[in-house]
């Protein structure tokens, strides 16, 4: 009986705990893949310089081999990156009442599968024309990958900060119910609640940069996160101030 | 020689007392090797626990240093200690806020060509 319960518990284990356990592993893998990519990219640059200098059949072959190797490492790096992002999104997924997080994870998973299917195609490349053809295919997919990576970077921080806001609101409710809670404390709490709303407004501004529509409607996605980041940082700094003010209320009135 | 054959009248109480005193003298006890081994094992266990604890407490530093290449950063704010349950809850929220580790940003070359 006990073993049956244990077996069931293993399968009922919440997914966020499962994802959290995997994050250190994904981070290590990402660092490892980043090193491999950097090494092969340096080699590619060397071979490119040599080929531009000598322009022979031998240097061309060496350059194609270096490009193929770098392409494989680039795809493995992106797979490791998408694994980490998807796992990170899982942790505070419950804080997102919109379908954004689910959609972002879904698209990232699809792109992850696409990237994992590329090695055989890259191996079969044998000349410049095939290489250019592959690069075109990759560019189309990479556009969507970039778009959803930026979406994930924003959404992940938004979900985390929404969790903090929700925890603060719960605490404020408990403080308000205290018998020591007088009119002066009431005024302080009203101000704190107003300050907390500032974070909600900053988050709403950041969320405007989450683009889950058709990738063709934008030309560059790499700046979307950078545009959202100041709002996310302002919201976080504001939350620190809110916490500091609540601490003051607790010390003075409670 | 007669003087050695004389009956010496020794009081019986004195004899008993001497005998009792003699039984009190016992050789020093040797330490039980099993107990020594047990204490040794416990000591080793405690030492390994301390080493594990130190290693675990050092782990976040090592993780941060390795991930610094990937532009990770987090704001560390000291958490005040208090017995007030609300202050404890607030400290927990502050720890959660500090624990946020943003996803690192990576960039790759899109167009690998000649």
What is the topology?
The complex is a heterodimer of chains A (254) and B (114).
Chain A: H1 2-12, H2 15-54, H3 57-91, H4 100-116, H5 119-123, H6 128-176, H7 183-207, H8 224-253
Chain B: H1 2-5, H2 12-24, H3 33-67, H4 85-98
Please summarize what this structure is.
The complex is a heterodimer of chains A (254) and B (114). Chain A is mainly alpha-helical and 254 residues long.
What does this structure look like?
The complex is a heterodimer of chains A (254) and B (114). Chain A folds into two domains: 19-157, no CATH class; 159-253. In chain A, 83% of the residues lie in helices and 0% in strands. Chain A has eight helices and no strands. Chain A has helices at residues 2-12, 15-54, 57-91, 100-116, 119-123, 128-176, 183-207, 224-253. Chain A is elongated. Mean pLDDT of chain A is 89; it is low at 5-16. Chain B is an all-alpha fold and 114 residues long. Chain B starts with a helix and ends in a 16-residue tail after the last helix.
Keywords:
heterodimer; A: about 250 residues; mainly alpha; 2 domains; 8 helices; about 0% strand; B: about 110 residues; 4 helices; about 60% helix
Ranges of chain A where pLDDT stays below 50 over 5 or more residues in a row are: 5-16
Series of H and E elements of chain B: HHHH
Q: Structural class given helices, strands, pairing of chain A? A: mainly alpha
Broad shape of chain B: flat
Which two chains touch over the largest interface?
A-B, 51 and 30 residues
Order of helices and strands of chain A: HHHHHHHH
Task: Tell me the strand percentage band of chain A.
Answer: under 5%
C-alpha Rg of chain A (nearest Å): 25 Å
Tally of strands of chain A: 0
Number of helices of chain A: 8
Structural class of chain B: mainly alpha
Helix content of chain B: 55-70%
């Amino acid at each position: 009986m006990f073993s049956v319960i244990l077996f069931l518990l293993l399968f009922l284990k919440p997914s966020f705990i499962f994802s959290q356990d995997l994050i250190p592993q994904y981070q290590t893998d990402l660092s490892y893949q980043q090193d491999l990519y950097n090494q092969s990219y340096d080699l590619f640059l060397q071979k490119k310089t040599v080929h531009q200098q000598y322009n022979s059949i031998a240097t061309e072959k060496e350059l194609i081999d270096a490009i193929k190797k770098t392409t494989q490492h680039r795809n493995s790096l992106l797979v490791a990156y998408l694994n980490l992002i998807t796992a990170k999104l899982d942790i505070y997924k419950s804080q997102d009442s919109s379908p954004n997080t689910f959609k972002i994870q879904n698209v990232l998973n699809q792109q992850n599968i696409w990237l994992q299917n590329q090695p055989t195609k890259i191996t079969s490349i044998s000349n410049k024309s095939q290489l250019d053809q592959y690069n075109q295919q990759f560019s189309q997919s990479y556009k969507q990958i970039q778009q959803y990576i930026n979406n994930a970077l924003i959404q992940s921080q938004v979900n985390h900060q929404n969790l903090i806001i929700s925890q603060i609101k719960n605490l404020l409710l408990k403080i308000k119910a205290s018998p020591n809670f007088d009119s002066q404390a009431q005024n302080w709490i009203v101000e704190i609640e107003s300050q907390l709303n500032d974070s909600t407004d900053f988050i709403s501004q950041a969320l405007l940069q989450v683009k889950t529509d058709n990738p063709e409607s934008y030309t560059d996605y790499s700046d979307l996160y950078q545009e959202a980041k100041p709002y996310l940082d302002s919201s976080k700094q504001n939350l620190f101030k809110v916490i500091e003010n609540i601490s003051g209320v607790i010390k003075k009135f409670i | 020689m007669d003087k050695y054959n004389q009956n010496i009248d020794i009081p019986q109480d004195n004899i008993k007392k001497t005998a009792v005193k003699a039984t009190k003298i016992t050789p020093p006890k040797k330490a039980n090797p099993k107990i020594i081994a047990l204490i040794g094992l416990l000591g080793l266990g405690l030492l390994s626990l301390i080493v594990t604890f130190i290693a675990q407490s050092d782990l976040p530093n090592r993780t941060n240093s390795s991930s610094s290449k990937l532009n990770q950063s987090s704001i560390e704010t000291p958490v005040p200690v208090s017995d007030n349950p609300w202050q404890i809850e607030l400290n927990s929220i502050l720890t959660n806020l500090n624990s946020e580790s943003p996803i690192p940003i990576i960039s790759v070359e899109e167009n690998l060509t000649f």
